[in-house]
Amino acid sequence: MKNRIMKLLFPWAIVLGVCMPGMAQQTKILTAEKHNEYGLVYTLPTTALQIEITATREIRKAGPYYQYAKKYVGTDVVIKEDGEVWTIESVRVQPYGVPNQEERYMMQLKPGATTFIGVAQDGMLLSINANPITPPEFKSTQPGEPEGEQLADREYLQYVDEDFIASQSKAKQAQMLAESLMEIREAKISLTRGTADQMPTDGRQLELMLNSLRHQEAAITAAFLGNSVKETVVRTFTFEPEEEGRSVLFRLSDFDGFVSADDYSGEPVYIKVDVTNEGVMPVDAKGEAKKMPKDAVAYNVPGTAKVSLTFKGKTLFSNEFEMSQFGVVFGLNPVLFSDKKAPSYAIFDPTTGALKEIGTAKEGQ
Fold first, then answer.
1. Taking CA 345 as the corner, what is the angle to CA 340 and CA 350, rounded to the nearest 5 degrees?
2. 3-class DSSP state for residue 224?
3. How many CB atoms lie within 10 A of CB 41?
4. Which of 24, 70, 327, 341 is most buried, taking the most CB atoms under 10 A from its CB?
């Protein structure tokens, strides 16, 4: 009779803690005692994916005098319209295990048994007769500092005179701005060369004056070329593949950035799962599938799947992962772990529930 626990759990059952993906899970040791009727409950994992998307948001402001940029600034590379541009820079994917509530088992032991199991905080099996290995932690990428100078809207107006305000000609205004720009640049050169009529008294004052001139120069230059500021935005998504196929993970909008999969204001970012190898039962020397031992200690024989992310026809990410849901469940003879002379130990993969290592406990400790 298969030792799966379906709906009925003993009163002593441990309450499973919720662990958000990316946070380090605590591990614990469970031993067979009278209060738990010498039964140890554990769960096998389903493989989920933690997907981190790093994007750049560029906020563009057009220069009101961009038509005169070639004449006065020497370039026609300008921003002509206000707007936002979002660009996906990188994708990082890490698989992790989540408890599969349909794959919950009990290891029944006899009084006096010294067998113990290591589980994660959420009850997933990590080891038998060995110290559990803490599941890997997902460390999120920290966004960098914004690139570009933050300028107030039409900040150049702070550095113009009454003649500029009174002028009704845009061409004349552009000429006056260009003249102001030249004066600022000449003042910077005079200060750095030490030839200014009024030189600062110390290095600190010189730094303040130069910074002020640089800001004025940037504000007036932006009136011709426009201005853009870039910032890094990081978003994390979780995805638990259930079957092969393609679906929309999220959408990216030039107005709102990251939006949900059902928000059609954005372009879809697709995630596709292709099973490349289905897990199968282990075989014996004759090549025949082995039978599940009685009251077996269950573990997963995972399959593999290729996971890819695409955006506007471009592949952002592609890699192959082992996944428990595309495999099968097999088991170990529980007698291996309760042998008084030479008990065995086993270590399991916290992401897939696969058997990673097995040996004699004395050798493995």
1. 150
2. helix
3. 21
4. 327
